[in-house]
Structures are given as C-alpha cells and as structure tokens.
Design a protein that fits this description.
Length: about 130
C-alpha cells in the first residue's frame, strides 16, 4: 500500500489525531515556533528559493513550445492543456515539493507571453472590425 492509499483509507483518523495532538501540545508548539521564528523564516525562504530556481531551470531548458523563445525564462508562462489543473505552478512554489510541481508543469505547455495571448485570443475571437486586418 502506498502512502497516498494509506492516507486516503485512514484520512479521518489521521486528521482527528493531528487535531488532538495540536490541542494537547499547543503551548509546546507555540513556544517552539516563537523560539525558532528566525530559523523557520530562513528555512522557508531557502525552500522557496530552491523551488523557484527549479521552476526557472525547467523554463530555461524548455523555452516557448510555439516559437522556441527562451531569452528571459522568468516570463515564460505555463498553460494547462488537458483541463486537469490541480493548482497554479507559480502559487505552488511557496508550499509544494519539486516532484509535485514537476508533475503539474508536465501537464502544461510553456509559452512566451505573446504566444500565450494569441492562443487565448484565437479561442475567444469573434469577428469584428477591431480584430479584422485592413
């Protein structure tokens, strides 16, 4: 049985245990967090920077899937193609592991801002005088 299967099978028990543990040890947890505030802040910052670099390296290696542009990988955008978006890649940098982020990035195509805009424009474009060439 995988960890995920175990968790799903015992989810209610696990959540109940975690809640009771936090209630029983509230003061101890609070004291630890207060005592180690700076260390925790630095660790979170370090994790964030590591994951942000992971995403940036992924973008740099791939480039735009339409035109190949990768001059500034930090502005490349993820476009979910399969409709099974679990979360936004950008918002996950702060709280998800690299493996989870990678799985979500693999569901996407990477696009430069121009290609991404054109893709959405083509999906919603209705003929009118403003969008018709002269």
């Amino acid at each position: 049985m995988t960890k995920e299967e175990y968790y799903q099978k015992n989810k209610d028990k696990i959540i109940l245990y975690q809640k009771s543990y936090r209630q029983e040890h509230f003061e101890k947890i609070k004291a630890y967090l207060e005592k180690n505030k700076q260390k925790i802040k630095e660790r979170k910052k370090s994790y964030y920077q590591e994951r942000a670099q992971f995403v940036l390296d992924y973008k740099r290696d791939k480039g735009c899937s339409k035109c190949g542009w990768n001059k500034h990988p930090e502005i490349l955008q993820f476009h979910h193609t399969k409709g099974d978006k679990s979360f936004s890649v950008g918002s996950a940098i702060g709280n998800k592991k690299n493996e989870v982020i990678k799985a979500e990035m693999d569901k996407c195509i990477l696009l430069c801002p121009n290609c991404h805009f054109l893709l959405h424009l083509r999906k919603t474009k209705t003929p009118n005088k403003l969008t018709q060439p002269n």
